[in-house]
Amino acid sequence: MLYPKKLSSKKSNLLIKILLAVSLIIAIILTIINKLTTPEIHWSALANSGIIYVWIIVKYSINKRTNIAGHVMIQAIAISFLTTYIDYNLGFKGWSLEISIPIIIIIANVTMLILTIVSHKKYVRYAIYQLFICIYSFLPIYFVQEELIGNYILSYVAIAICIMNFILTIALSARDLKEAIIRQFHM
Questions:
Q1: Total domains, the chain
Q2: How many CB atoms lie within 10 A of CB 150?
Q3: Is 115 within 8 Å of 67 (Cβ atoms)?
Q4: Neighbour tally for 41: CB within 10 Å
């Protein structure tokens, strides 16, 4: 039985460089076409931000030392920036702050809760990412306090889900977390 040949590190690095160059050429072509055809609408900036987003995720995913909780955290932050940038380029109607970011926060917290339920023994590996997502989840409070959004309901739902997720995570993993802290600090 023949197995497919595995790409060597050298070949895969070359492939990534070629694809990066192709992406850069596409971005330049899109910018030129945008400037020549419809300079008043900055649609190439939106397309190019999507290309940049994809490369950030590819670069992060190639790093083999990251775990799935790290991917959830990076995705939540990257997609939040991307949607805010798109909203800003479309005249900033506020939908990114009012709808998009709270939904992203809800999805990140639900994903972390599922990870905790499925692999609560490995929670210690996810704990720091859970903490960062929890801190990030309080971003809508800033939007509400600064009156950057008109409808607060989705922001309050996102914050409530974050708090419930944090409490459930502690309840499900408290003993394992305590054992890991005792092991780590030799108590």
A1: 2
A2: 8
A3: no
A4: 12
